[in-house]
């Protein structure tokens, strides 16, 4: 990926190439909804947004705004150089399951302490994710969980 192929943002848009490294964390009051298996499993206006160079935003949602009764801890863990050790979650609604559908940082490093008790979801593993009513496009690749909307321009890593 070459930042020289950066898409110039129009008014009201953000370029992922203007996001910082290390990632910035900021509160978001955008209305986020996630549908899976015919159920609304997330409905919030209280998320945190992580912004990192070349990545679309990743939203971390408080567990109080998630139907946690549909989620079970998975055995997978990974390490993020910025946030610490990540734990993964499986999602099951009725007979439909999505493995490693979400992740969290149970004990994030101090700079990202706000992410404790929050989960991020892979939009490509959900039936539908929405930001202020707009259906999200998933960031390419199995490892990345960015949410792409009309106001985010790339090119994107993945």
UniProtKB/TrEMBL annotation:
Domain DUF427: residue ranges: 33-123
Q: Which InterPro entries match?
A: DUF427 (IPR007361), DUF427_sf (IPR038694)
Report which superkingdom the organism of origin falls in. Answer: Bacteria
The record's section on Pfam families has:
NTP_transf_9 (PF04248)
The protein's matches in PANTHER family, at most eight in alphabetical order, are given as:
DUF427 DOMAIN-CONTAINING PROTEIN, SLR0655 PROTEIN
Name the UniProt record assigns to this protein: DUF427 domain-containing protein
């Amino acid at each position: 990926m070459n930042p020289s192929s950066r898409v110039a943002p129009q008014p009201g848009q953000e370029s992922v190439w203007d996001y910082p490294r290390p990632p910035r964390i900021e509160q978001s009051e955008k209305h986020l909804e996630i549908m899976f298996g015919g159920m609304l499993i997330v409905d919030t206006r209280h998320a945190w947004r992580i912004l990192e160079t070349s990545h679309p935003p990743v939203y971390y949602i408080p567990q109080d705004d998630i139907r946690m009764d549909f989620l079970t801890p998975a055995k997978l863990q990974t390490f993020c150089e910025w946030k610490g050790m990540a734990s993964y979650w499986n999602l099951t609604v009725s007979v439909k399951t999505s493995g490693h559908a979400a992740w969290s940082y149970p004990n994030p490093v101090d700079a990202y302490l706000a992410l404790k008790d929050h989960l991020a979801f892979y939009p490509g593993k959900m039936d539908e994710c929405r930001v202020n009513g707009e259906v999200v496009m998933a960031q390419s690749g199995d490892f990345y969980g960015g949410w792409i909307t009309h106001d985010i321009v790339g090119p994107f890593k993945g």
